[in-house]
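Residues determine shape. Next comes a sample protein:
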Amino acid sequence: TQSRLTSHPTSTATMIQPNATLYVKNIDWKIKKPLLMRALYALFSRHGKVLEVIVLRRDGLRGQAFVIMQDIPAATAARQNVNGFTFFEKDLVVEYAKEKSDRIARMDGTYVPKAKRQKQSSLGQEQENAAPEDDTAAGEENTDPKDSTTPSDNDNNNVNTTVDVGDPSKYLFAENLPAECNEMMLGMLFRQYAGYKEVRMPRPGLAFIEFEEEAHATLALKGLNGFKLTQSDTLVLRYGKS
């Protein structure tokens, strides 16, 4: 079974009803897909549980993604807070998807098989926030796992919480970062948190993150410590010295 998400031209005459699936565009498609999916997951997770992130990279669909939240209130909060957010130097555009994802439809009992949907809409026009017909959501059959990420991909519960993170301060310290991790990427992750000031990388693999207050740094440490930067690299944070 395949996802019902499709890509569509926006029509001001069409009122899009709130739903748990969000359509995101104006993404810098040159960002590597694994990093992009994890960054979107981290960004939207601040506003509710993210069930899945689907990144579109086919011709004509680059720079677009779908984020499936657990419910409409979470999607609404994410849409209100993330729309216009500067993400890798581009301002995101976040809208409700015109159709809910198959995953949500199965959860709420409204799922209709693809063949039946195609028959019902055979005379209609293709929609804008609709993934192409051959796109599938993670967890569906015939899914390419490289196209999506799910909570298990960024489950921070496996982080060893017994590691000493040092004495609380307004600075965070990260080391052993992967080669592709730069100031722009780290800044995008940390600027989601109140009080963020800057990231400094004195050399590759090492970073200092400054916040206005200790409390701000603590929230960021709790939220991002253990975040998977790549399939094999995890962000490990400690407090830095003031």
Residues 33-45 form the longest helix (13 residues).
